[in-house]
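Work package 3, deliverable 3.1, input record:
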Amino acid sequence: MDEHCGRDIVSRWPDNPLITIEDIPFRCSDVWNAGVVRYGGEYLLLITIEHLQGFTEVHLARSRDGRHFMVEPTPFMTATLTGPLSTYQNLGVRDPRVTPLDGTFYITYIADSDLGMRIGLARTDTFAHLEWMALAGEPDTKSGALFPEKIHGRYALLERPNPGMSIWISYSDDLVYWGGSEVVMTPRGGYWDADRIGAAAPPIRVEQGWLLIYYGEKHTSAGPLMRLGAAILDAEDPARVLARSNIPILSPRENYERIGDVPNMVFSCGAVLEDDGEMKIYYGGSDSCICLGTAGLDDIITVCAQSEREF
Amino acid sequence: MSCPRGRDLLHRWERNPIISVRDVPFRCNTVFNGTPVHLDGEYYIILRVEGQQGYSFFALARSRDGLHFEVDDRPCMMPADSGPFELWEENGIEDPRLTLVEGTYYVMYTAVCRYGHRIALAKTEDFSHYERIALVSGPGNKDGVLFPEKIDGLYARLDRPYGKEIGSIWISYSPDLINWGMSEMVFSPRARYWDSYRIGASAPPILTRRGWLEIYHGVKMTSAGPIYRIGTAMLDRDDPAKVLGRCLSPVLSPREEYERIGDVGNVVFACGAIVEDDGEVKVYYGAADTAICVAIGTLDEIIESCFENNG
């Protein structure tokens, strides 16, 4: 990969960005954060599109190689302007995260309305049809990421309630009623993730536990600086953080990460772990494009573990 | 009893406040926001007491007539100093609300910690000893009141999450009092009115011939700070997310010196009410976050207030 991109643990794909509004088959304002899944021999991105009117919907983009994507013209997840869900997602749906579990694909997303943000839950078997399921929690909370396995027989969900700007975990028997909420990780004063954190990709099971790619924000006088980091959570009790990277694994540096509607931002909603141990992390740049970064799984785990030893 | 009608629908007892710091047999800063119960000829109020250190805890007051109270020598419930509740109650426990459901007395209260406010649930048999059950919300939520009956086989509560800085009253349901979901917004602040800034449930809902009577608090923001008043709403018996009626004017506003002057002036804030057999309603409320008062109305008048149409 491109040499000058080597300052971060994650290497950028040289042809970044993968998707910009030029690749969308209709006029729109922005293209944002995408969830990702491998399904049916394809890479599927669930990309957030902000319409010119200002609300957001989710479209599918398909690819054979994980790099060259075709965006579908009709939305896969629509903003809900009528019906019972309209109260809670009339401003749009966005930031979908895909979790394979129970032989289906669950999608956690932000349901945005005048009343605040909640975590929505939907499912699909084939990505042809979407079933809205339930809204989890009360506002404001976002960055919902479902674990791909049950923990002690219960569904587990990471989320980021606004108070405290920390990552929490909640549990459920049925994906409808949630409880047992506790804090997993908090922002760290003085660090790159000093002011706000949240789950980025849904947790990935690795030998050491659960690998969590998360986003961290530091406030600057010019606004937020949003980066990606990594942590390892205990396999049996994911509220326990075993290791956490002291340094980000990806920081905004390239123009497409620095310049856009929300500048200085890299923000991920999904990653794919390939059989050879390569992680493909799909991320939004400046809330204006979709990019790809890659890293060896071992490198990310090492950075979590070594960071821990620096203390 | 002498209850001269004032300018408000509820009239104050002439010897308000009924409990102030002077009546508490241990040193403390203030006593306010107490939740009452009338059982076997005895009245009890679980009081929120703010200690001199600055955090709140609960103490029990007892009375034969509901007007003259004696406060127990020692607090009845302190923030947990060990175990799973310790972290969440590190900054105190506040605003208890007592509800009898299927023969058990439950106290919903606010647990305060570094991450914000959460709703917690405990139960009691004698009002002196409490068994904690669970934290039942994420952070950024308070004013939880449990319904005294199940709705469609589920426990139900009103609460006050804080989406987009809007303090609305929501409802959530639970099969087991531990896991909660199916949350819906019930009613919101009203522009132009006395409750334009923020609202929250105050007394646990009271079942009446017209539905669930909710005595709630409404806030208007002024340049000098908030004004807390007490209002009424009627919720559908079978679907309490449906508002059948809502007062246009408050039923009680801060007017007396003990409501205007105190640690938080211009506050009347109820945490419970008792309906007597003759239809008299005693609303117990905190005044200026400094004392406990009682205001009295008739159930019929209070029900009517929900359906008034001449603001």
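Chain B touches chain A at residues 87, 114-118, 134-141, 159, 161-164, 166, 168, 170, 172-176, 178-185, 188 (CB under 8 Å).
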